[in-house]
Amino acid sequence: MVLHTSPMLILPRVLLALCGGSIMLCRCERISVSITQCGGVGDGKTLNTEAFKKAISMVSNGTAGGTVLVPAPGVYLTGPIQVSSSNITLQVESGAVVQAVRSTVDFPVVPNLPSYDQPTPRYHPFVWVTNTSNFRLTGGGTIDGNGDYWWQRAGSKSIERPRLLEIYNCTDVEVSQIELRNSGFWTVHPVYSTNVHIHDINISAPANSPNTDGVDPDSSSNVLIERANISCGDDHIAIKSGRNDAGRAFGMPARNITVRDCVLWAGRGVSIGSEVSGGIDGVYISDNRLLGPSEHGYHIKTSSDRGGYVRNIHYSNNTIGNVAGDALLGILTDYGVTTAAQPAYVTPMSNISYVGFTREAGSVPDTHGAGAFKCFSESPCQNVSFDSVVLDPVTAGTTWQCEHMVRPDVRDVSPDGLSAACS
Length: 423
What we know:
It is a single chain. By secondary structure, this protein is mainly beta. The protein is about 10% helix and about 40% strand. The chain is built from five helices and 35 strands. The chain has helices at about 10-20, 50-60, 145-150, 245-250, 420; strands at about 1-5, 25, 30-35, 45, 65-70, 75-80, 80-85, 90, 95-100, 110, 120-125, 125-130, 135-140, 140-145, 165-170, 170-180, 190, 195-205, 220-230, 235-240, 255-260, 265, 270, 280-285, 290, 300, 310-315, 320, 330, 350-355, 360, 370-375, 380-390, 400-405, 410-415. The strands form five sheets. It has a 21-stranded parallel sheet that branches. A six-stranded parallel sheet has the order 20-23-26-29-32-34, with no helix packed on it. About 50% of the residues are buried. Residues about 1-20 and about 20-25 have low confidence and may be disordered.
């Protein structure tokens, strides 16, 4: 049966019939479907996997798309959610929680990413948005990955733990007004995607939770991350483009990535890499507050396994609080390497500017120094500049380290000694 009518006139009992699959709908207008109309129950016990599937299928039935509504209050336990149609909004209302079921059985195993050389498969991301355009995640509610169930499996290398939200091969995506917490692995992972706007979100995971990066733009372009509050167990932000042979063969760079006006609490800092094998070009990191406590500051990391390139990186008007395990600023070229790769795949790095760095009020002296820049001897860093970079206090005798960098342009930098270290 085909029902020709305005979606705005469909009654709840008709929606239930649609979710049950007994009626087909031909439409050209957007509709909104609550998962409760498809059997969803927000009691924190009932498994809602099928309710989500039915609601998503319903709003996907037509070119206009629609909104899947998760109403408040309620805790909606579910297996993985996948959206593979365009023009879909997932709206989780304030006071509603979409929570991952604590079960490996409910998470299918999916192939690894083609730009990564990891031989093992991975678990289905909790929310997986694939091959779509015009997707929105919003509403003021919470997505909870029940990460502690997965963190205890961190030592197992057989199957990679699930990301919380992966945006795979999509265009025109917006993630806003949402709390994302307790991911099993990376929290937000836009990969092979274009025109992604992530803003006004909260990301949280315990400081000791393994690999719970905040936002990891990966082989994607035109990504804007702004006004995010992030406290996590690994990199707050990590900009990537595939790893080693697979990343070089796939050859998709990360381009035009902007990170601004974010507040970063516990975690491991703002990084470019270490997965840079497809190249990184055009990164703008500005007006962020790294309050900490953080293991690292702002750094670029790669190794002789990676190859690729890093160029046109611009830092401006960022602050740094307490950093426990590293210099405040850095370039690392031996990240994660125990033996030298044969042959070596060095990463050319050029056009990097550091402007307007300051410390947060009350920061303790950094015992690892203001900056440690260790470029490749085979490919020295070129066209690097520092202007109005004030990183006091640091412990005396550990101010600057600089290896294989073509003499940088240094202006108004404190503590003293950067020009001499790079000469």
